[in-house]
Amino acid sequence: MDVLTLTGITKYYGKICALNNVSFSIPAGSVYGILGPNGSGKTTLLGIIMNILKQTSGSFELLGCAPDNHIRRKVGTLLETPNFYHYLSGEKNLQIAAAIKQKGADQIEEVLRKVNLYDRRQSKFSTYSLGMKQRLGIASCLLGSPEVLIFDEPTNGLDPVGISEIRELILQLSAEGKTIIMASHLLDEVEKVCSHVAILKYGNLLTAGKAGEVLVNEDIVELGATDLSQLASILQAFPGNTQQVKSGNFLQLHFPVGTANLEQINRFCQEHDIYLNHLILKKKSLETLFLEITHN
Amino acid sequence: MLQHLKIEWLKIKNYKTFWILSSLFLVSVFGINYIAFAIEQETMQKAPEAGMILGTSRFLFPDAWSTVAYLCSYLLFIPGLLMIISISNEFSFKTHRQNIIDGWSRTDFIYVKLMDVVILAICSTICMVIAAFIFGISTGGFSSIDFSGSIYILYFFIQALSYIAAALLAGVLFKRSGIAIGVFFLYAVVLENLLAGLLNRYVGGIGAYLPLESTDNLIPFPFLRNVVDHIVKRPNTIALLIAACCYLGLYFFLCKRKFETDEL
User: Percent of chain A at pLDDT above 90?
Assistant: First the structure.
């Protein structure tokens, strides 16, 4: 089942097209990363799903239904920045959120502990650091154990420890079977946690699908031997490779995703009396890929 | 709706600014009446002949109702201010977004704010009624209590509704507290009076039916009545009430419409 299905979502701010006919679906149980440079329309898209913004055209279904406020109660969302009453404590803010969601009032202590804010629960929101505000936002999403969580830049403002804690939390939530939709421009973050990705640029959907398929389009095997030219000529005959590139002191063989077999390559070279001093399977770095995808 | 109001209560329960301003309103309600009361008492004592023009004390029942309502109406900008703060806080903290993300509909959100208008108007009216009792009783004693002029309680309530709803509208339209408060005050205190004056002078009588004027005029100037009544022609009360209700409907409609269709 799909948790979210977008059909032709288009959004104009005056003459500026923020989203252009965006369609994709998010399967249940996935960790879905929505990637894109600043201003690519990520937050606009999530804002439309949350009824904060209104799309110019197109439609979407949330949990299989036309969206309304009852459906939104089943989704925990942190959009852009954590929005809380500055003059109230973290705990009181969560009481308000739980009351609106109509569930989770009994989980306030639990979620505060989960994001390490329990000790500061009585402090006013205005006294929190950026990272603490962000963690309170995440705690609020967890109230009522929603099946779907939407995080917009969840690690914004967090220190390295906080970032890794949130990453752990996302993986843990995903292991519990929850669907997580995450907008981010931090590739590293997406690579480490997402099972699926969609890439947006200037409001256009460039690609969407399983992370393994979208982000790693080739296996690259890097080899080295004393006589590099001999190695190159022998490997011409190795089946399955699509491209051979000389890179510094090494040779790179490109294979379609998942077809590179290091053992076979090693045996093949040995059979041709070449002994390798370097053999490694590389995946194209996400950054390179991202730049390739968004620049074309 | 009760559940929604409970949430609204959670928002203001620990909000100091709200309680400080509310206390100041309460103090001012008694203060402004006490000043008028003291001046009247002193005039009567020092110059008993002034009683010829002043008539009996305006703080005697049943006149106490209209007198206290009139005096309190000068303070209605304070509940208006509270309303603007309440809505513009939501905008500046972006909690209006969060409330909707968390599961209110846009209609839920604006209905609760409209309910706040009604509740604030009821509270203001209660303050006015208590003040009327205190000053009425201290002038004429318990036995003098008379409800024949108590229609002014209703008029005051309508006036309070009108001021607070106009304040909410200013808040919804301008979003930022500074500009909303500025526009609301300038309009309520200066611009409308100026406009009313001009209209009354050049177009004839219709100035009294401007949004806030229509409710201001429900409660006439209480002092020197036997003089004023001969000079000033009072606008038709029924027409004023109809105008006031139309404006109220308009404020409610515009607030709802604006919030339901806007980008938040």
Answer: 46
Q: Tell me, what amino acid is at B42?
A: E
- Any idea what DSSP says for residue A56? S
- Return d(Cα B84, Cα B98) in angstroms, integer: 19
Point out the residue among A73, A84, A101 whose CB comes nearest to the CB of B93: A84
Chain A: closest CA distance from residue B109 (Å): 11
Reported in sequence order, the residue ranges of B49-140 that DSSP labels E, i.e. its strands, are none
The answer, yes or no, to whether residue B163 has pLDDT greater than 90, is yes
pLDDT band at A296 (very low <50, low <70, confident <90, very high): low
Distances (CA, A) of A165 to A132, A137, A172, B219, B249: 13, 14, 10, 64, 52
Q: Which helix (H) or strand (E) holds A60?
A: strand A57-62
Nearest chain B CA: its distance from A163 CA (Å)? 23
CB-based burial label for A288 (10 Å; 0-12, 13-18, 19+): exposed
- Contact between chains at A96 and B93 (C-beta distance less than 8 A): no
Amino acid letter at A51? N
Provide the shortest C-alpha distance from residue A147 to chain B (in Å).
14
* Backbone phi and psi for residue B77, each to the nearest 5 degrees, phi listed first: -70, -20
pLDDT digits (tens, 9 = 90+) for B105-121: 999 999 999 999 999 99
**A55 contacts A10 by C-beta, under 8 angstroms:** yes
What is the gyration radius of the CA atoms in chain A, in angstroms?
A: 23
| Nearest by CB: A54 against B98, B101, B263 | B263
Report which of residues B7 and A234 the model is more confident about: B7
The verdict on a CB contact (< 8 Å) between A87 and B95 is no
- A→B contacts (Cβ < 8 Å), by residue, are 50-54, 68-70, 72-73, 77, 79, 81, 83-88, 92, 95-97, 99-102, 140
The label of the residue with tokens 């050049």 reads B202
Please answer yes or no on whether A73 and B95 come within 8 Å at the CB atom: no
Report how far residue B63's alpha carbon sits from residue B52's, in angstroms, rounded to the nearest whole number: 17
State the residue for tokens 């949350």.
A50
B10 to chain A, closest Cα gap in Å: 7
Three-class SS state of A9 = strand
Burial (CB count within 10 angstroms: exposed 0-12, middle 13-18, buried 19+), residue B146: middle
ipTM: 0.88
Q: How many CB atoms lie within 10 A of CB A96?
A: 22
Distance CA A175, CA B86 (A): 41
The two structure tokens encoding residue B71: 């005096």
Mean pLDDT of A198-204: 90
Report the mean per-residue pLDDT for chain A.
88
For the CA atoms of chain B, what is the radius of gyration?
Answer: 20
State which residue of chain A sits closest to B1, comparing Cα positions: A100
